[in-house]
Specification:
The structure holds two protein chains of two kinds.
Chain A lengths: L1 E9 L22 H29 L6 E5 L1 H10 L1 H12 L3 E3 L14 H19 L5 E3 L7 H9 L4 E5 L2 H4 L8 E3 L6 E5 L1 H8 L14 H10 L6 E7 L3 E2 L2 E2 L4 H14 L3 E4 L1 H7 L4 E3 L21 H11 L2 H7 L2 H11 L1 H5 L19 H30 L1 H4 L5
Parallel strand pairs in A: 1-2, 1-8, 1-11, 2-3, 4-5, 5-7, 6-12, 9-10
Antiparallel strand pairs in A: 6-7
Chain B lengths: L1 E5 L10 H15 L3 E6 L12 E4 L13 H8 L13 H21 L15 H18 L6 E5 L1 H14 L3 E5 L3 H5 L5 H13 L2 E4 L2 H11 L6 E3 L21 E6 L8 H14 L3 E6 L5 H11 L5 E5 L3 H9 L3 E4 L9 H7 L4 E4 L12 E3 L4 H13 L1 H17 L2 H15 L1
Parallel strand pairs in B: 1-2, 1-4, 2-3, 4-5, 5-6, 6-7, 8-9, 8-11, 9-10, 11-12, 12-13
Helix pairs in contact in B: 1-15, 2-4, 4-5, 5-7, 9-10, 9-13
Classes of the chains: A alpha/beta, B alpha/beta.
């Protein structure tokens, strides 16, 4: 029996406005609200609404045999709530169907798992509580930003009580082995790992409407044939995609919605194929082996490592300056500051600063002319935010210990 | 006295200090009773003509090659036109110019020797062609205006050939004004075409005016010009007529500013290294590097590497009012130039009540008493000076007050008087 595990990532990186040195100390609106709103409204129209409706219908039609999973950041939930609340409602409808699993992840698509364990735990805890509040189910599966994973991160995730985690089937980690089986974390065998099948995922993500591709046009039948015939694919076929693939990266007129529509029909026609989510998979299958990942992997670039975000001195500087503020922001715990703190942590800002060649993924294009512009703009915002945090922190400390500042002779 | 003056730019259409200096000087000359006709390659019509008559070279009809003497024709053809050298340009500007150039290249080449030629008046990729054409126009103007001028005065290498041509035609004395040399712009890797034009201009001139003793020495030593022929006349600064309201300061921190092209000549890296040293000692200070240039990205990387980018800000290229705003927000202005023939920006900073630190390798260091002077490479001394000015109010107050007085005394009127002396010596 082969199980197809479809998982969709729903997150919109928030873009900063052009923030110059001359704005510092004057303006605290760091985001390009107009652009961010336009993007979410466009994606809602082109992807979220039609796709949610389609999935809803398919679940009903196949009576529980069609299953999918979603991972949605806390920032995304806030954004949907603010600009397109009906989309959030349609996700709630999906969540209620019991054939849809929601994962836990970081609150704002951050790199915090690579920085500090304690902060990582608190961040995931916040996210998980929000998912439970909005969708009524406590997540049991974890997905990290950009599918970043290492033995150590897995250990922390297992310790938080998660039983499954999704990551990349990176070739340099797997070697001859197939991503199509369950693996376990090297430190804690209680954490099952589901690995993305990058070939089959990218067939949809990148190649679906590529007319120069030998497999074009990709029909549901052809795709399921591949899955059925491919022996290397293993028992569990993990198709992990950005949700915007449907209708945004691959536009409606490419036939992507028809592809999805016929996917369950083609698959369920055959006796050896079913759909699943990570939680149904770990109940049904036994792990095949332990996976050793001493250095972090991700789903980006040929190298599948983390150098797209933390590869040069600009990125290292920005990240270290950002997280130097962590204790103060947590102590202050002010809603306004927390909001800024969330979106400043988002991985996309650091991605725009990368100076590697050939690193430009569809849908992740930088709004800046160069990595240097990205760095300058981010640092201007961060410097101003840092000024604000430090001022408020100093005031708070003064309030808490008024005696310490009183003159000694008084 | 009447002067025929050749320049390349005139306010408000300027890219560097050259246009500003020409404007100040012509005003000063007008006050000294000198009548100036100022030729620019391209006039826009909105130049301030109260003190000077602007002649637009693009409007002059050159009666084709017949009117040219043999020697000018030789001069015009002596340089093969192939280079893309651009004296004042940042990378972006250069790319923009490259684009313009390739677009215009085809018809420009053939049009060049038409009777009337539309100059771009910029520092474009076909600069050499324009310089040549300007020389032809120079000859024509000298002929058309025969008897209407006593002296020819040419500013910087772009106009030297025009000056020489005008001298050939009219037989009037030529004064050339050196605002910068090829050595200042490029270090030791001089462009020989430019060097040759500079050398020709200096040789043909009856007197050479240098903007500082530093530049005078370069003219004498590197170009082999007779010291008796070379006179130093320092630049001055003009007080803006209407100082518009200053922006309010929004940051509590002290601000230390570098403003200029981010190129080797301006020494940006020394500013960064000094900033890192100061930031180790004082937390409440921010550094700003305003401008753009071929070393910008390298500087950004260096700042990131030093781990000071939360207190070191880049603004990119600043335009008109933004420059004044930047001065108004600054507590210290630093000009660590490796080589600066004069350097007018510290004077502008002092005028805005900002104490300045300048390198000893700048011409302006010769005329300023109330500026801290350091060797450009002496990062410790630079850091020390910055620390002093932001930490000890008494020191900065002294520099602000005395600096204002000092800069007020640097009048174009006085500089113009010296230039008139030079004219008198050649007539």
């Amino acid at each position: 029996m082969k199980t197809i595990c479809l998982y969709f990532e729903v997150h919109q990186p928030l873009k900063l406005r052009k923030y110059r040195f001359f704005n510092m100390g004057r303006d605290v609106n760091y985001l390009d609200d107009h652009l961010n709103r336009a993007v979410v409204v466009k994606n809602a129209m082109r992807c979220y609404k039609p796709m949610n409706q389609l999935i809803s219908r398919l679940i009903e039609k196949y009576d529980g045999k069609f299953k999918v999973s979603f991972s949605m950041t806390g920032s995304m939930i806030e954004l949907l709530k603010h600009y397109v609340p009906d989309v959030l409602e349609s996700f709630k409808v999906l969540a209620a169907s019991e054939n849809v699993e929601f994962f836990a992840e970081t609150y704002s698509d951050s790199l915090v798992s690579l920085i500090d364990d304690g902060a990582f735990r608190r961040d995931v805890e916040r996210q998980s509580r929000l998912i439970e509040k909005e969708f009524g189910v406590k997540p049991r599966t974890f997905r990290n930003t950009e599918l970043i994973y290492s033995d150590h991160i897995g250990e922390v995730v297992a310790d938080m009580g998660y039983t499954a985690m999704v990551t990349e089937g990176a070739r340099h980690i797997l070697g001859w082995r197939s991503p199509g089986y369950l693996y376990t974390n090297a430190e804690n065998p209680g954490l099952n790992l589901l690995l993305r099948n990058s070939g089959l995922s990218d067939d949809i993500r990148y190649r679906f409407s590529d007319r120069s591709w030998s497999e074009w046009p990709l029909t549901a039948k052809k795709y399921i044939d591949h899955i059925e015939e491919d022996e290397h694919a293993g028992d569990i076929v993990n198709i992990f995609l950005d949700y915007e693939t449907f209708g945004a990266y691959q536009p409606c007129e490419s036939g992507i919605f028809d592809f999805v529509k016929y996917l369950p029909e083609e698959a369920l026609k055959r006796p050896g194929i079913q759909f699943g989510t990570p939680q149904t998979v770990i109940k049904e299958y036994q792990p095949k082996a332990v996976l050793h990942v001493p250095y972090p992997i991700s789903w980006t670039d040929e190298e599948r490592d983390t150098t797209a975000w933390l590869g040069n001195e600009l990125q290292e500087e920005a990240v270290s300056k950002l997280y130097a503020l962590r204790d103060k922001v947590e102590t202050l715990n002010d809603p306004g500051l927390n909001h800024v703190w969330d979106f400043l942590q988002s991985a996309n800002h650091f991605y725009y600063m990368n100076t590697k060649w050939f690193t430009s993924m569809v849908g992740k294009e930088s709004p800046y002319d160069s990595p240097y512009d990205a760095f300058i703009n981010y640092m201007n915002v961060l410097s101003d935010f840092s000024r604000d945090v430090n001022n408020r922190y100093a005031k708070l400390m003064q309030k808490q210990s008024p005696k310490a500042t009183a003159p000694a002779f008084a | 006295m009447k002067v025929l003056m050749f320049g390349w730019e005139f306010p408000p259409h300027i890219t560097g200090g050259l246009g500003t200096a020409c404007y100040g000087l012509t005003r000063g000359l007008a006050r000294n009773g000198v009548e100036v006709k100022f030729v620019v390659p391209k006039a826009y019509g909105n130049e301030d003509q109260r003190f000077v008559r602007i002649l637009n070279a693009s409007d002059v009809e050159a009666v084709y090659q017949d009117s040219l003497t043999e020697s000018i024709r030789n001069m015009v053809t002596f340089i093969h036109i192939d280079s893309n050298i651009v004296p004042y340009s940042s990378e972006e500007e250069f790319n923009e110019l490259r684009r313009e150039y390739t677009e215009e290249q085809l018809h420009k080449r053939s049009e060049l020797w038409y009777q009337r030629y539309q100059f771009s008046g910029k520092y474009g990729a076909n600069l050499m062609e324009e310089v040549m054409r300007y020389a032809v126009i120079g000859a024509q103007i000298a002929k058309d205006m025969e008897g209407e001028f006593d002296v020819i005065h040419a500013h910087d290498w772009l106009t030297y050939l025009a000056g020489i041509a005008a001298k050939e035609i009219s037989g009037k004395p030529l004064v050339i004004h050196v605002h910068a040399t090829e050595y200042d712009r490029t270090g030791e890797n001089v462009n020989t075409n430019v060097f040759n034009i500079e050398k020709r201009g200096m040789d043909a001139a009856d007197k050479v005016i240098a903007v500082s003793n530093l530049t005078r020495n370069i003219v004498i030593n590197k170009y082999g010009i007779d010291p008796c022929k070379v006179v130093t006349v320092h630049n001055a600064v003009r007080f803006a007529e209407n100082d518009k309201g200053r922006p309010e300061r929004a940051l509590d921190d002290k601000i230390v500013t570098f403003l200029g092209r981010i190129t080797y000549q301006k020494g940006p890296e020394y500013f960064i290294e000094a900033a890192a040293k100061v930031l180790k000692q004082v937390p409440n200070v921010r550094f700003v590097m305003a401008g753009s240039g071929d070393m910008l990205n390298k500087m950004i990387r260096r700042v990131a590497k030093l781990g000071i980018s939360d207190r070191f800000h880049f603004t990119g290229f600043l335009k008109g009012d933004e420059v004044n705003d930047m001065f108004a927000l600054s507590d210290v202005y630093v000009m660590p130039s490796v080589s600066e023939p004069f350097g007018i920006s510290p004077l502008e900073a002092m005028r805005s009540s900002v104490p300045v630190i300048i390198s000893k390798q700048s011409g302006v260091a010769e005329v300023l008493k109330y500026a801290i002077k350091v060797d450009y490479w002496d990062v410790d001394a630079l850091a020390d000076a910055i620390y002093g000015l932001i930490t000890y109010p008494a020191l900065s107050k002294l520099f602000i007050n005395k600096g204002q007085e000092e800069v007020m005394s640097l009048k174009w009127n006085n500089a113009a008087m010296k230039v008139v002396e030079v004219y008198n010596s050649v007539i």
